[in-house]
Amino acid sequence: MEISMSALWRMITFAFLLGIGFGVLYDVFRITRVMAGVEYAGIGKKSTDRLYSIKYPFIGKLEKKEGKIRKRFLHLFVGIGDIIFCLIIGVAFSIFLYYSNDGIFRWQAAAAGFLGFFLYYRTLGTLVIYFAEIICIFLKIIIKILLYAIAFPFRIMYNILVKVSKAVLGVPVAWILKKIRLKNTEHTLKTLLATSSSGFIEKYLKGQGG
Angle at which helices 132-194 and 200-207 pack, to 10 degrees? Predict the structure, then answer.
């Protein structure tokens, strides 16, 4: 299928931008890996350890999980992430070709997409992954604060409901307990009176030193 030069250059330009978008998406995957525990060569470990040692308002200290089981999980997590990323690229590029060139493959578009991804990966991508650990720490802080803000009104409502329920139910419950105690007292008195003829009270009082 023939294609005009203007249409070809337009397709190449959009493919290049799509490649940059794939690079951004790959950084999202890498950031999630760092949040899960994957370590990349980046900013010094001492700097991140200091951020983990700080007690933040509302959320306290952040937890840094480590362990053998976690390392095994990370290998699986990275593998699944790579598969999902490749599937997304394949589907997205196929849709791009369908709308830009009636689904016909053009090596120029593929090369432009790869070039866009490669340039992003080697420039901004390198910078992002260098500061990935710090980015993840701040993302964790933001997420925890948002969750705290969302849960805060529900906590207030729960505390109010608990106090109201105690205040409302406390009166009848106390009244019922009082009735039960009175009945038990009456039953005890009746038992004592019934056995008083056999000298039980006198014996009881003598036993108490009365």
Answer: 130
Can you tell me the distance from the alpha carbon of 177 to that of 179, in angstroms, rounded to the nearest whole number?
A: 5
Cβ atoms of residues 59 and 65 within 8 Å = no
Segment 13-62, tens digit of pLDDT: 999 999 999 999 999 998 888 888 777 766 655 666 677 677 777 777 77
pLDDT at 124 over 60: yes
Q: Is residue 60 helix, strand or coil?
A: strand
In one-letter notation, the amino acid at residue 44 is G
CB contact at 8 A, 16 and 112: yes
**What token pair was written down for 114?**
């790869």
For residue 202, name the pLDDT band (cuts at 50, 70, 90). Answer: low
The percentage of residues in the chain with a pLDDT greater than 70, rounded to a whole number, is 73
Nearest to 23 by CA among 93, 121, 146, 106: 121
DSSP secondary structure string for all residues of 69-101: HHHHHHHHHHHHHHHHHHHHHHHHHHHHHHHHH
Q: What are the φ and ψ backbone dihedral angles of 133, each rounded to 5 degrees?
A: -65, -40
Q: Across all residues in the chain, what is the average pLDDT? A: 78
CA dihedral (143, 145, 146, 151) positive or negative: positive
